[in-house]
Amino acid sequence: MAKSLAEWQTDVDRWIQTVGGGYWSPHANLARLAEEVGELARLINHLYGPKPKKPEEPDQTLSEEIADILFVLICLANSQGIELEPALQKVLDKVWHRDRTRYQNPSRMEHD
Fold it and tell me: CB-side exposure of 83: number of CA atoms within 13 Å?
């Protein structure tokens, strides 16, 4: 059974408190997030863009880079006392309602 987002937040908090030395400041977490997003962008550019990967660069996967970003976001949320599950549900409800027809093909909408 997969863990819930709340369970992952608890696991990360336990690790940060016992091994990780405590949470970084919001500014430090933001800098770390920017670094991780940059690594994802670089990998996407290597995989799908015009920039070839250097032979000496280590192998990376999209899943690992995305997971690195999630870890930093969980750390930031935990440090600020944010429960991500209800926050994510609120955003999904908003997007699903607001954007329910936004990305449909206009020609399809005329025929529906």
Answer: 7
